[in-house]
Amino acid sequence: MQMTTALLIVNPCDDEEDNMAMLCCHSDQGDMFLMTRYPDEDALDITLGDEPSTLDGVKVTLGAGTLLIEIAAGDADALNGDDSLEITFDADMTDLAELEETLQNILKGTGTYIRQL
């Protein structure tokens, strides 16, 4: 599955939401993707559409202008039947340091973060 967005909205630690780390974007077609994790949770939540899915073992690869999210085949319902989602974004409109901190907070202890910048 692929999405294109101009902007990734990130927050490594939202004080108003019990220190939740959050990554969100809206595709050019109006679809919303949301990945969140509270620091005291053992798994993260992915929402694509209406229903959130709680997952662990998520692998995220950050490249220049791309974010690849890979999940277990058994969890494919979280991504509308796919086991991966590639998000293309405008790196000039995204704070990459804040994006990396957010991804590390979301994946710490429950997933894998790969940096390919």
Task: Explain this structure.
10% of the residues lie in helices and 45% in strands. With 117 residues, it is mainly beta. It has one domain. A 5-stranded mixed beta sheet has the order 1-9-8-7-10, covered by helices on one side. It has a 5-stranded antiparallel beta sheet with strand order 2-3-4-5-6. A hairpin with a 6-residue loop joins strand 4 (32-37) and strand 5. 25% of the residues are buried.
What is the strand and helix layout of this fold?
Elements (H helix, E strand, L loop, with lengths): L1 E3 L4 E6 L5 E7 L5 E6 L6 E5 L3 E4 L2 E6 L2 E5 L13 E5 L7 H12 L3 E6 L1
Parallel strand pairs: 1-9, 7-10
Antiparallel strand pairs: 2-3, 3-4, 4-5, 5-6, 7-8, 8-9
- CA radius of gyration is 13 Å
Strand order of the largest sheet: 1-9-8-7-10
Helix content class: 10-25%
What number of structural domains do the residues give?
1
The helix/strand series, from N terminus to C terminus, equals EEEEEEEEEHE
Tell me the fraction of residues in β-strands, as a range: over 45%
Q: Which assembly state applies to the chains in this document?
A: single chain
User: How is the biggest beta sheet arranged?
Assistant: 5 strands, mixed
- Give the termini distance in whole angstroms: 22 Å
Indicate the structural class: mainly beta
- Tally of individual helices: 1
Q: Tell me, what's the shape?
A: globular
Uncertain segments are none
Count of distinct strands: 10
What's a quick, concise take on this entry?
This protein has about 120 residues and is mostly beta strands. The protein is about 10% helix and about 45% strand. The chain has one domain.
